Amino acid sequence: xxxxxxxxxxxxxxxxxxxxxxxxxxxxxxxxxxxxxxxxxxxxxxxxxxxxxxxxxxxxxxxxxxxxxxxxxxxxxxxxxxxxxxxxxxxxxxxxxxxxxxxxxxxxxxxxxxxxxxxxxxxxxxxxxxxxxxxxxxxxxxxxxxxxxxxxxxxxxxxxxxxxxxxxxxxxxxxxxxxxxxxxxxxxxxxxxxxxxxxxxxxxxxxxxxxxxxxxxxxxxxxxxxxxxxxxxxxxxxxxxxxxxxxxxxxxxxxxxxxxxxxxxxxxxxxxxxxxxxxxxxxxxxxxxxxxxxxxxxxxxxxxxxxxxxxxxxxxxxxxxxxxxxxxxxxxxxxxxxxxxxxxxxxxxxxxxxxxxxxxxxxxxxxxxxxxxxxxxxxxxxxxxxxxxxxxxxxxxxxxxxxxxxxxxxxxxxxxxxxxxxxxxxxxxxxxxxxxxxxxxxxxxxxxxxxxxxxxxxxxxx
Amino acid sequence: xxxxxxxxxxxxxxxxxxxxxxxxxxxxxxxxxxxxxxxxxxxxxxxxxxxxxxxxxxxxxxxxxxxxxxxxxxxxxxxxxxxxxxxxxxxxxxxxxxxxxxxxxxxxxxxxxxxxxxxxxxxxxxxxxxxxxxxxxxxxxxxxxxxxxxxxxxxxxxxxxxxxxxxxxxxxxxxxxxxxxxxxxxxxxxxxxxxxxxxxxxxxxxxxxxxxxxxxxxxxxxxxxxxxxxxxxxxxxxxxxxxxxxxxxxxxxxxxxxxxxxxxxxxxxxxxxxxxxxxxxxxxxxxxxxxxxxxxxxxxxxxxxxxxxxxxxxxxxxxxxxxxxxxxxxxxxxxxxxxxxxxxxxxxxxxxxxxxxxxxxxxxxxxxxxxxxxxxxxxxxxxxxxxxxxxxxxxxxxxxxxxxxxxxxxxxxxxxxxxxxxxxxxxxxxxxxxxxxxxxxxxxxxxxxxxxxxxxxxxxxx
Lengths: 462, 462
Ligand code: FES
Prior knowledge:
Chains A, B: Its cofactor is pyridoxal 5'-phosphate. Helices cover 39% and strands 13% of the residues of chain A. The first copy, chain A, is of the alpha/beta class. In chain A, a hairpin with a 6-residue loop joins strand 10 (314-317) and strand 11. In chain A, helix 13 packs parallel to helix 15. In chain A, 60% of the residues are buried.
């Protein structure tokens, strides 16, 4: 069974991990590795590292593994000989899908689709999911511009050499502090940290401010409403500037919670207003739920907490969904083949795993568990922030178990992160001085207690 | 055992596939689907479709499945309980790799690395492989420019909003007719067909001509040498124009054989000269072996046929290698974490499969088989092109089983492609009027005979 608590015998990383990091570094730059992992002996919420340390994992492989390590139902999927066929015969899915594929999509992705979404395309990671949602928005925007006119020869020939009119001057608006991936198109819309962007070329696309609230929220209602208005005015302004310059804004991409950027939350009202402004400007709302999607907020999609007046135009996903891809409303459906396309177009074996994840989430009532464990986490974090104001800022924030808190300085964050690790808790740093929690969907209130105990110990030490 | 020949009972696609295409089309645009596939009953070189037709597959899932359907050694990999751990616990590989990971890389990717390549990074598809090779070239170029100076605050802050000096004006040169993927960075370097590019924005990056030879080669030596010189002069010219404008060319990306563009071959001398020009201009040579790599040319890497004076700076791969990624020379190794990065950084379960593929290729002498079967294919195709000059152009070309031929018109290509399918042969269209062959590495001379017989039948019919 699962460990009853963390058990750490060496420093983390220990000597075995350090040797393996040195070995890997001969093959590739290995500076981002925390430690090597013994996946065979990892179970549930506990990861075991190469030195035999058993660590409570509240980071879940950057929020990507939904049900914890070696979940018995996941083992069943890969043990089934019929499923094994999908694991070893990966198709060019856009051309030769397996019989039964529409049913698989219906039982997995469509069974948890956001409201109004009947269309879904699979991709293989968050970046190609966003890049292809951008492309679908560009096609839709251009088709509106054409107004039914047919495609000219000049369009077809000019696009081959990256020239107008075939290549468009269209843009995607993004927000300061955002993260949408690290391919060059996505990277143009990413603004969370310079390490991701330095030295690389970027497109000239509009950028607006994302709200930065004062906490506690209840004491700063007026200021935070003004902050919403300031940011929304920037969105309007960017639309005006770029549309006037002929660099038409075809879409706005936004995270429901800016995760890499430091778990920055904005109000439902902000998103409601944002949707209205986008519609007014004839652009598409692209919600990037790569990190927020998949259940960690207590709903499958974080934006379901926002009561948007209309469904989002695109919702992109990856990570906990195991496959990348995007949902879209019918009007954004590509009308030509090969444009939203690549060799693999995702991976059916991942969708088999997802189908089971969706069943388990339902069977075991895991979204309810997320709500319970999330409440426990939030209450405990707020209590600690009150008791240790010299270390923790008063801005604990979260929905479900998608929680975060700030230390009072970047140095203190780094120290708290390191000490949590040494005491057997794997958390995730993000932003300037934030620690984010991204536990598995099987994270229980008892795990929250263990985490809070260790954090309290760390706060007493520093 | 494997089928002894094609067996077709319905039109292809048959009624069951057509029903499934209609079902899928409710969920996503399904216009690129050829037919639905029964992967359980497919074996070796034969794919079975949803209507029970058994089809000789010389397209191999757009050249991506190396050993044919349901290869017994692939089944063994996924049946092994120790391996199943990797299939269900996908890590954030750049942070928490599994113990033993360096050995896995050594036994798989590094065991077949191109000459001089000791460094390899895994990615998840051809597009992120190319995008990240571009990024590594940009970092390397910028570091040379900096000449050891440290990174300024202005660089760090300006890149966050896509501005100079942190965001660079650097470019990657590409060739007319090329295909390097469909994310926006890759797409800027793709020029094979307008369908891929129309309506999307592109960066202003240099483009040069790729040689278009007259066939038969032996009768046009002088003209083709002049064609090489013309294209190389364009490369030099583009370097001059872009470098002078401050849009420094950090790398040149090129396929050893332009595949999507119609299997366009250039001479070893062209690539040797190209490498010299790139070096002279202080840029990096990025060989995109996504389609050409993995053994189909009789060597693991097509450019090993070119006798380049020096190793290529980058070699990118995906498809038959089952994992994406790129090899690079040590000097192009990224020196900071998180820049060549994403959540998954590839997929260890694919590397387990690749490790076995590499063993099987060696054990069963498959590169030798490719050479034998390729010779049989080429001889047969040349013979047919002599006997059916009214249908086939005299430009049969190929290395190993990586073969192609042109029909005398686009319409005839479409008809030949369609009729091949109706007679139970799945080939691949590319370029304007080309049919390409991308058989599995287990394609034997007897399969070449069957293919040639069917092609002859088709040429007699049209
Ligand atoms: S870009 Fe998504 S898998 Fe390669």
